[in-house]
Amino acid sequence: MMAICAARRCFLSSLFNCVAGPGQSVEAAVGRGRCEWMRMGMNKDHIDTPPATETAGPSPLRLARTVTLVGLMGAGKSAIGRRLAASLQAPFIDADDEIVKAAGMTIPEIFERLGEPEFRAGERRVIHRLLRERPQVVATGGGAFMDPVTRGEIGERAVSVWLKVDLDTLVSRVSRRNDRPLLRGVDPREKLAELMRVRDPVYATADVTIVSRDAPHEAAVRDLTRALMAVGAVAPGV
After folding, report:
1. Which residues contact 49 (CB under 8 A, 6 or more apart)?
2. 156-180: per-residue pLDDT in tens?
């Protein structure tokens, strides 16, 4: 129990870079918003944003607003997001990767040692920060958009895109990996079908819906780029 508590404190401290005052717990510092990144006023010198992916020449298009990809595990959020960002010479961020780097633990380890509620709280904070940086492509975890606070912030500060995938394709994709905490010890098809019933109605409120088929991701990127141009998230380059 002591080890788990210590891990939890370390996770909160590293994830939010919090400074607890005299006699104040890390949890209290987090709760009161005494995090350095919140007090920095979003100073660019303090934001760890990766450079835009280099391409052969200037892009005829540019990213005008942050694009947030949502959907179930296996929808292709990271793969399509990286390709979209590269085509627009924009930064790409995987929210789960940001949590892993800050916590010093893998997603399964966070779930096992700290529990899903703790992971979701960290996820909420990370996305809050990312939405306040310059326009970029952000891939979120499957449960992120289910949080009403996160969903509201995405609605205010970004264009949300649901990558919709049929059940057979999802099952095929997730079977290639064994690091999905929500699929441990359960039948993947049954669990994914359950998640689809619960989450799809919420995902459907996203600004844009793209059907991601079991085909080359480049096709999805082309469809997505056209849809983003229609809503003003992608504009002609300068």
Report:
1. 91, 93, 133, 134, 136
2. 999 999 999 999 999 988 887 766 7
Cα–Cα distance between 103 and 88 in angstroms, integer?
30
Q: Same domain for 219 and 164? A: yes
**pLDDT digits over 63-113, tens only?**
999 999 999 998 999 999 999 999 999 999 999 999 998 888 998 899 889
Task: Decide: pTM greater than 0.85.
Answer: no
Q: How confident is the model at residue 235 (pLDDT cuts 50, 70, 90)?
A: very high
Confirm whether 161 is domain-assigned.
yes
Same domain, 31 and 75: no
- Asked if residue 197 and residue 129 are part of one domain, the reply reads yes
Specify the length of the chain in residues.
238
Beta bridge partners of 164: 211
**Alpha carbon distance, N-terminus to C-terminus of the chain:** 56
Domain limits for position 170: 59-236
Q: CA–CA separation, 126 vs 68, rounded Å?
A: 13
**Which residues lie closer than 8 Å to 100 by C-beta, 6 or more apart?**
106, 107, 110
